[in-house]
Amino acid sequence: MTDLSVTGSQMQVKAPPPPTPISEPFRITTNAPHQINDETLSPGRRRLQKWLGRVLRIKISDGRILVGFFNCTDRDANIVLSMCAEYLVEGEGQEPRLLGNVMVPGKHIVSLNIDEPKPASSSLFL
Amino acid sequence: MNASILDPPDFQAATAAAAAAARAHTEQTDLDLAEQEQWSMSECGFMDPEVQRTIRSASGAEDITQYPLHGWVDVTAEFHEACAELLPGELAQDMLFGLFEAMSAIEIMDPKMDVGMGFDKQDLPPPSFEAAVAMGVIKLDELTTAELIGIFDALFACFVSWLEGNSMDQVLFTCLYLHAPAQIQDRPLRAFCTAVRNLIAVVKNIIVMAGVNEEEDFQLYGNSALLAAEKAQPASIAPMLKEVEDSLVRKCKQLSSPEDSMSVVHRLRFMRHLFQAIYQVELMAGADSAEEAINDIYKNLNVASELMPLIRRTIDRGTQPVDGSEAPNPMGFSPRIHDRSQPPTFPRSIKIRDRPSSYQFLEEMISRFKYACKIIRHKDYYSALNFFIEYSRKSGQCILSRSVLQSLFSSSIRLVHGKQPMKQFLRHSVQIFNSPPVLNAKHPVASDPKVQQHLETFFRYCINMNTFNQFIRICGFNRARQRDKLARLIENFDTIQVDAARLDSLMNQLANERALEGNELHATALKHSTHFSTWVLYNCFRAMLIFLMSGFELELYAVHEFLYIYWYPYEFLVGFLVSALTRTENILLAQEEYAEHQSKIQANGSSSGGGGNNSGKNRNKTAKPRKNKKQQRPYRCEIVYYHALLSLCGGMYKAMAALTKDGRVRLPMSKFDNEEIRYNRRFLPFVTLTSPPPVSYAEFKNIRDHMMRPSVEELYTLAAKHFDQARNVLESIQNPEQEILDLLQIARTNFVVMNVLARGHQKGLKRQPDFDFSKHNYFPIIKLK
Amino acid sequence: MNKSLETTNTSGDKKKTQISDSKPSSINVNSFTPTPIKENIEPNEELDDEIEITYTDFHDESQLKIVQSIIDKELSEPYSIYTYRYFVYNWPELCFFACHGERYVGVIVCKLEPHQTSWLLQGYIAMLAVEMPYRKRKIGTSLVQMAIEAMIDRSAAEIILETELSNKPALALYESLGFIREKRLLRYYMNGVDAFRLKLWTRDVTPQDSSEDYV
Fold first, then answer.
1. Interface probe, candidates C33, C66, C82, C145, chain B, greatest B C-beta count within 10 A
2. Full set of structural domains in chain C with CATH
3. Any chain B CB within 8 A of the CB of C119?
4. B197 is a domain residue
5. Which SUPFAM superfamilies does the entry mention (chain C) (predicted)?
6. Which of B535, B552, B569 is the endpoint of a domain?
7. Which of C50, C60, C56, C63 is nearest to C146 (CA)?
8. Regarding predicted confidence, which is higher, B511 or C130?
9. Predicted local confidence at residue B246, as pLDDT
10. Given this model, what pLDDT does residue B451 score?
């Protein structure tokens, strides 16, 4: 019951085409090594680059706190976090609910905190 | 595939798009992969979410709760400024991030996806059992009878809702009493809650062992931590309940109006017998005698069903759920208690059945179980398979009923009816089916070592291929999955079929050898037997027919496809079945005549040589079959039934031809449609078979084009004739079952409709008729609009 | 924004794809009429029967919001903006819009990928929506047709999709194009409703040698 069974010869003829390359206007800035040292990027992009992959703490409009790895954002700050933990209120000692991947719409963001060394000590890393 | 194994079932429902895309991505391979792994898949299935979570976090993921490592730095303004530099549509993304995984992201503050949204902070922390006790909202001792009845009825409602596919946490474990029954002082309540917990554990085991559940049927997993908090001791449940019942009954004797207390007793007793019956099903695998075990189960079910009216009559004696509240009972339930421990996108709208309909469900379930007990009477494959097919049609909705039948019949793929080896069962089945002399232990040829060796090889092969056992198991799955699995099974029949044909020809070969040796008796017994291949073929045909016709039941066929679907059974499949059965009957008859002939010779011989005792016995033995000669047509009923199916298929085939020619069938746009491909796809599982040989599209087209040559009116008349034939056959059946009556109504109505159309009714109106399958899954009543 | 009546295919050719909805191009079905999906909703404005619907493909980021707004309104399943991005950014050439003048009234979103085991290209229709007042005009059929053609141009061997059991208009639409219901999926959607997997084979990929096994 192979649905798309083909003979060997057909398979050779119909090799999978490469994935469609993403063209403009779908520009992507990543923290990949070849981009990370790209000096031509705007300062904001470079800052986002630095934050990608770090842990972000987002307070949203209904008071909840979301903590997760910063995976992606767009112009409107629609942020994708992975392995996200949800806390109902601010403060210590709560059991979080684990949500996995979440998308936080920019319009619901109240504040953003990144887990990074204080600016004073950041020179250690440069 | 990996994803679907690792993710708990609830994640399945995560965001639809992700699921849909992932399915589009992976599910096409389901037929290939899942089917190969179908048995091991279900084994993988019973990992609890806890375990899965561990596996996932062990696979390199980190614990998010250990952050921050450095400290939070507020970047709100900078972040928004940075984002504003991005162009519309531009993304800043982690190098390991892909849009595909972003699809599974829950959108926060979207009411459809975000369960945490609008969480009432007043509820913090969610009341646990301990909290509820501390707050004094639940009583642990001296509950009134009304309170007990209310809680018991609510728990039965939760149990039923769980069996219907809701998660254990969201229904059963919203009952705080179930969290810690040991802390309950009230004895009836403690006993009942302990019994519920054990019932859950036992039911889980039965369903896991039967292995006929799919993620869409039933959620096996729930809050394992809560269930594990107190150890299951199923053996102690019945005595414990009994003791509480007895002391309550003693109390009742001192009461002036003991009705309320007796209602509590009835519920405890009902629970005891229901529990005991289900627990015994779980123990079937270790039962010494399947008969005895099933007998006990049946007795318990009987008592339980007798208690049912008493319970249903007293539902109003219990506390009732408050209007507008989600809780199934005013005391003891906290509907939202597990929301925070649920997977991110669990279904929020849980509907717990109301009490009367829950008891209705239980009553029907108990009668399904009782019916399932009858499997013990079906000692051969043919009748067991028929029973399973019938049971699936009647009880297919309920996962526990399906699982119970599997457990009652077979505890492993090598054992049936308790401890009977599958091989022995299959041997016996062939013997019952068409009685090959080589399987008759008393027949002299049975002691031929060569013959035995071939038989041994064949049956071992049958077991190893697992085809026959699997056919029965497939009947236990839900109807949609049955079709997928049958497609795969049909292929397997072919290899068995080849083996059976080889066995048959070996027997013929041996017959020749024995004839040369002068062993006339052995030679005759071995000659011309197609016993084994007929047996295998017959089962293969059945699987093919069920596969094909299940497409109607599942509403898979478009009206314009009906023509070729009905054509195949009309032209071939049903005919094959009839001829396999007729051949079998003929073999049985011939054998019997031969046996009679043989014993006459023997009787004559022995009476002349003295030894009157023996000859008398022999005469008695041979006299019987002669009297019962008419009964030697064991497949009479089935053959008649297939004759009716044949005419109905013929009627539908020609009706569709007439309607198509008449312009009353909506045909797909020719631009993309390709009938040949559709035809090939619909019959794809048959392509691999050597017997029956597949029928090409070209052949179908020839036959159809030829058939469609007459005028529309003539075609309608031809269809009418088939329906009339079907009517005649069906009317000849004595003491017809409901199905026969339904088919009869279909045949009669369609006969009239075809005649009306043949006379040119609604000639100008080229409207497609309705095809109403409400009377029968395979055949519609054709209704003109 | 380019509101012309042109679609651009990958090779850069421009072709005019004006499909007048009142004259379906190659439909030989005599009695097929799709009905509105949500029948109890009244069309909110009177529309001229002979309105001209034009079709265009995805060429501008601002259209993403349009995709989202049309689909969110019409489909039961919730999608985040990144779900739309997944489809539209990866396969912009398989996203088409129907417009009435300046107004976007319908959209189809698809993808095309090699099948996991066979490597043949499999198309997938992820979303299709037509705004309520514009139903019953074969706009959906035209959008699906354009998508199928685009996928066939890119060598799709088959095209699949899922739809709700109860969505009779959608089932009728796809069936009229030759899709068959390949499989029933029990409790497929979040709301517990069954679905069908629909499939259209654009070319017969059954191995040649196996057809010789036929009688």
1. C82
2. 2-160 (3.40.630.30)
3. no
4. yes
5. Acyl-CoA N-acyltransferases (Nat) (SSF55729)
6. B552
7. C56
8. C130
9. 97
10. 87
Read off the pLDDT of each residue in B659-683 and give the average, rounded to a whole number: 94
Residue B219 and residue B301 share a domain: yes
Q: What is the residue range of A83's domain? A: 28-115
C30-41 pLDDT, tens digit per residue, is: 322 233 333 333
Q: Between B339 and B301, name the one with better pLDDT.
A: B301
Residue from C120, C159, C203 whose CB has the most chain A CBs within 10 Å, to mutate: C120
Looking at residue B711, what DSSP letter applies?
A: -
- C206 Cβ neighbours under 8 A, 6+ residues apart: A5, B680, B687
- Is B481 in contact with C186 (Cβ distance < 8 A)? yes
Q: With CB atoms and an 8 Å threshold, state whether C93 touches A4.
A: no
List, for residues B339-357, the tens digit of each pLDDT value: 776 766 655 567 899 999 9
Domain count, chain B: 3
Residue A14 — pLDDT band, cuts 50, 70, 90? very low
Name every chain C residue with its beta carbon within 8 A of the beta carbon of B86: none
DSSP letter assigned to residue B694? P
Cβ-based neighbours of B363, under 8 Å, separated by 6 or more: B305, B308, B312
Q: C120 CA to chain A: closest CA distance, Å?
A: 7
Bridge partners for C127 per DSSP: C109
**Same domain membership, residue B427 and residue B281:** no
Q: Is residue A2 pLDDT above 60, yes or no?
A: no
Residue C156's pLDDT is 95
Of the candidates B526, B776, B759, B520, the one whose C-alpha atom is nearest the C-alpha of residue B644 is: B776
Give domain status of residue B700, yes or no.
Answer: yes
In a domain, residue B252? The reply is yes
On whether any CB of chain B is under 8 Å from the CB of C28, the answer is yes
CA distance A61 to chain B (A): 9
Q: Chain B contact for A34, CB < 8 A? A: no
Distance from CA of C209 to the nearest CA of A (A): 8
User: Confidence class of residue B606 from pLDDT cuts 50, 70 and 90?
Assistant: low
A59 SS3 class:
strand
- Domain-located, residue A54: yes
Closest-CA residue of chain B to A29: B92
Which of the four pLDDT bands, split at 50, 70 and 90, describes residue B311?
very high
Q: Is the domain of B353 the same as that of B434?
A: no
Chain B positions touching A48 (Cβ under 8 A) are 79, 82-83, 86, 92
What value does the mean pLDDT take over residues B169-174? 90
The per-residue pLDDT for B278 is 97
Q: Is the pLDDT of residue B621 over 80?
A: no
CA distances from B669 to B59, B225, B433, C105 (A): 50, 57, 49, 24
* Residues 32-71 (A) with a CB less than 8 A from some CB of C: none
With cut-offs at 50, 70 and 90, classify the pLDDT of residue A117.
confident
CATH of the domain at A100: 2.30.30.100
Are B338 and B437 found together in one domain?
no
C59 touches chain B (CB under 8 A): no
- Which of these three, B310, B341, B370, is where a domain ends? B370
C100–chain B nearest CA distance, Å: 25
Neighbours of chain B (3+ CB pairs under 8 A): A, C
Q: Are B435 and B294 in a shared domain? A: no
Q: Is the dihedral of CA A99, A100, A105, A109 positive or negative?
A: positive
Question: Quick one: B361 and B423 in the same domain?
Answer: no
Is residue B55 a part of any domain in this protein?
no
Q: Using CA atoms, how far apart are residues A16 and A81, in angstroms rounded to an integer?
A: 32
Residue B24 has pLDDT above 50, yes or no: no
Instruction: Look up residue C50 and give its DSSP letter.
Output: T
**Is C207's Cβ below 8 Å from some Cβ in A?**
yes
Q: Does residue A55 fall inside a structural domain?
A: yes
State chain B's mean pLDDT as an integer.
Answer: 85
Residues of chain A neighbouring C208 (CB-CB closer than 8 A): 7
pLDDT of residue A47: 93
Q: Which positions in chain C touch B25 (Cβ < 8 Å)?
A: 113, 116
Chains within contact range of chain A (3+ C-beta pairs < 8 Å): B, C
Shared domain for B301 and B181, answered yes or no, is yes
Both B165 and B268 in a single domain?
A: yes
pLDDT (tens digit, 9 = 90+) per residue, B381-410? 999 999 999 999 888 789 999 999 999 999
- Domain containing residue B753: 635-783
CB atoms within 10 A of CB C154: 17
What's the rounded Cα separation, in Å, for the pair B137 and B140?
10
The answer as to whether A46 is a domain residue is: yes
- Residue B628, C-beta contacts closer than 8 angstroms, at least 6 positions apart: none
- How many residues in chain B? 785
Kindly state whether C208 is in contact with chain B, defined as any CB-CB distance less than 8 angstroms: no
Q: CB distance C186–B480 less than 8 Å?
A: yes
- Residue A122 falls within a domain, yes or no? no
